[in-house]
Amino acid sequence: MENKILVETSARHIHLTKEAVETLFGAGHELTKKKDLSQPGQFACEEKVEVVGTKGTLKMSVLGPTRPENQVELSFTDARTLGVTAPVRESGDVAGTPGILLKGPAGEMQIENGVIIAKRHIHIIPEDAAALGVSDKEIVKVKIEGTGRATIFDDVVIRVKDTFATAMHIDTDECNAAAAFGVVYGEIVK
Predict the structure, then answer these.
(1) Handedness of CA 79, 9, 87, 16 (dihedral sign)
(2) pTM for this one?
(3) Which class is 120-189 in CATH?
């Protein structure tokens, strides 16, 4: 495999539990798929949720399918807009993170935790990980060039799983810093 990884921008979004979906959208409500995302089985939904902080409010897309825990993924700019101090965490690592108020068309709920800035990461299938000489949970650097704002992202976590599609995920602040718009590839630097 060539040492090039597709770099995708993950805009702010929210993952909800089945219970949260019913609280926010009504009893028995099922998420409505709008479009498939690059990671197999993941999809953007028609549903949107209002996320209410101490300083502001953002309307956010819901991603499906439902998850075991609620999770609000922001950029640092989004966190400042809302007035929340969100830590950088891997997806799913929500223990001890701030909570926030969620509002939907059928109700609202205060989540006790789940607000994070997603740690930049590379989803990678085992064959590609072997070809690139990287392993699960390894921390690497990724160089992005040719955008007019060449950047090396440090502290990128490798996440290996056979159900992934190989791609790096950065948030909108990171995308803007590197001018990583459209189809952009990065190179793992060890």
Answers:
(1) positive
(2) 0.95
(3) mainly beta
Judge contact between 104 and 24, C-beta under 8 A. yes
Bond into 98 cis (ω within 30): no
Please give, one letter per residue, the 3-state secondary structure of the chain: CCCCEEEEECCCEEECCHHHHHHHHCCCCCCCEEEECCCCCCEEEEEEEEEECCCCEEEEEEEECCCCCCEEEECHHHHHHHCCCCCEECCCCCCCCCCEEEECCCCEEEECCCEEEECCEEEECHHHHHHHCCCCCCEEEEEECCCCCCEEEEEEEEEECCCCCCEEEECHHHHHHHCCCCCEEEEEEC
Give pLDDT tens digits for 108-140. Answer: 999 999 999 999 999 999 999 999 999 999 999
